[in-house]
TrEMBL record:
Residues that coordinate or bind substrate: 236, 258, 261, 328, 361, 415, 420
Summary of the function given for this chain in its UniProt record: Catalyzes the sequential NAD-dependent oxidations of L-histidinol to L-histidinaldehyde and then to L-histidine.
Keywords: Amino-acid biosynthesis, Histidine biosynthesis, Metal-binding, NAD, Oxidoreductase, Zinc
Enzyme class: oxidoreductase
Protein name: Histidinol dehydrogenase
Annotated binding of NAD(+), by residue: 127, 190, 213
Length: 433
């Protein structure tokens, strides 16, 4: 069921297996291009038409906006335990991200003041997937850091809800976070286009965050530049480093937890030493898989993108992790902190047997929006910085301009930009008169 490798003997084959990615395809690109064009030209009319075509829901233009009362009823209808979980998650996410806030600074010297200002984005859109899978945690993880940053307005979009909107959990979370004035039931590429261009109903935003299917990802990629985006997220992934101290049932459970999303996830178990028992883990996988409600998706992920990698040493385990640059890294081995210190290319690290990746998905506080597909080599988790921008402010007094003028003129003329040089020289001439 799971492909097996030895490292470093099969390094090249393992690198090829890790590197395999699936692109959206030409047909997806063509469909998304047409959707973007239609929404840009027709606005709400295109959104209503696509809701009927893709979601099977007939909406009027007025029904694109979800009434705040619907969100309030969704909150009131939540089971109390789930409501408490959402409240706790929101508090912890806010507390963790508040430490990321940064201020601008001013540098003053004789005749010169230099400043960097930090300001929040004015308006941000959060895409929350819907349909067969509903992810209220997506709204928590994307919206709370934006609120901490001070974003002026957060616009929530999610595919149309066919039945019982008063029980739709993302609407409940929108109420909890105070976002229910700006919630719209529009999904897919058309939602991203609406946020990028604006319609009579949906306001144009500066940035769009949140995961989605291939059409959503393609729309974000195509519209980047008109709007900012968080990233073009790929399928989720976990890499677990384990030694003989790890329990096979824990390892199997965490591999399955990642594999159950869509059937395209990457799950990797790196076992240290010749005595590491991969067979015991595979037996547990089969046992737990038989009872898993989403066993079809999990089995597909394990078969297509499941890897067992045997290494001889802890150092080689680190090498495999650095090579994969995983979204999630679990370490169930002796002295996990020592291993973690050596690994740089990773979205989030979960240390020890009692830190399953699921706590990071939901309740711990750090963000679960993480780089995928090896991009942890250069991308970071979503955070407050994603919703801030900086501007530089300069002020020169006449005396300082006079001191710096020869340097500016020399550099400008060296680049052939003589008007730049003259813009300084003219001020010196005027000052000398």
């Amino acid at each position: 069921m799971v492909k097996r490798f030895r490292y470093p003997e099969e390094r090249a084959a393992l690198e090829r297996a890790f590197a395999r990615t699936e692109t959206a395809g030409d047909e997806v690109e063509r469909v998304v291009e047409r959707i973007i064009r239609d929404v840009a030209r027709q606005g709400d009319a295109a959104l209503v038409r696509y809701a009927a075509k893709f979601d099977g829901v007939k909406l009027s233009t007025a029904e694109l906006r979800v009434e705040p009362a619907v969100c309030k009823r969704a909150w009131e209808n939540l089971p109390r335990e789930l409501a408490r979980a959402f409240e706790l998650a929101a508090r912890r996410i806010e507390a963790f991200h508040r430490r990321q806030l940064r201020k601008g600074y001013v540098v003053r010297s004789k005749g010169m003041t230099l400043e960097q200002r930090v300001r929040p984005l004015a308006r941000v859109g959060v895409y929350v997937p819907g349909g067969r899978a509903v992810y209220p945690s997506t709204l928590l993880m994307n919206a709370v850091p934006a609120q901490v940053a001070g974003v002026g307005e957060i616009v929530v979009v999610t595919p149309p809800v066919r039945e019982a909107p008063e029980r739709f959990t993302p609407f409940a979370v929108a109420h909890l976070l105070g976002l229910s004035e700006h919630v719209y039931q529009v999904g897919g590429a058309q939602a991203i286009a609406a946020l990028a261009f604006g319609t009579d109903t949906i306001p144009r935003v500066d940035k769009v965050v949140g995961p989605g299917n291939a059409y959503v990802a393609a729309a974000k990629r195509m519209l980047y530049g008109r709007i900012d985006i968080d990233s073009v997220a790929g399928e989720s992934e976990v890499l677990i480093i384990a030694d003989t101290s790890a329990r096979p049932d824990f390892l199997a459970a965490d591999l399955l937890a990642q594999a159950e999303h869509t059937g395209g996830e990457t799950v990797v178990l790196v076992g240290i030493g010749e005595d590491f028992d991969f067979d015991a883990v595979e037996r547990e996988l089969r046992l737990q898989l038989a009872a898993a409600p989403r066993r079809q998706q999990a089995r597909r992920s394990l078969t297509r993108r499941g890897f067992f990698v045997r290494v001889r040493t802890r150092e080689e385990a680190v090498e495999v992790a650095e090579m994969k640059a995983p979204e999630h890294l679990e370490i169930m081995a002796r002295r996990p902190e020592q291993l973690a210190e050596k690994i740089s290319n990773v979205g989030a690290i979960f240390l020890g047997a009692y830190t399953p990746e699921a706590v990071g998905d939901y309740i711990a506080g750090p963000n679960h929006v993480l780089p995928t597909g090896g991009t942890a080599r250069f991308f970071s988790p979503l955070g407050v910085d994603a919703f801030l921008k900086t501007s530089n402010v300069l002020r020169y007094e006449p005396e300082q301009l006079e001191r710096d003028a020869p340097h500016v003129i020399a550099m400008a003329e060296a680049e052939g930009l003589f008007a730049h040089a003259e813009s300084v020289r003219v001020r010196l001439v005027k000052r000398s008169k």
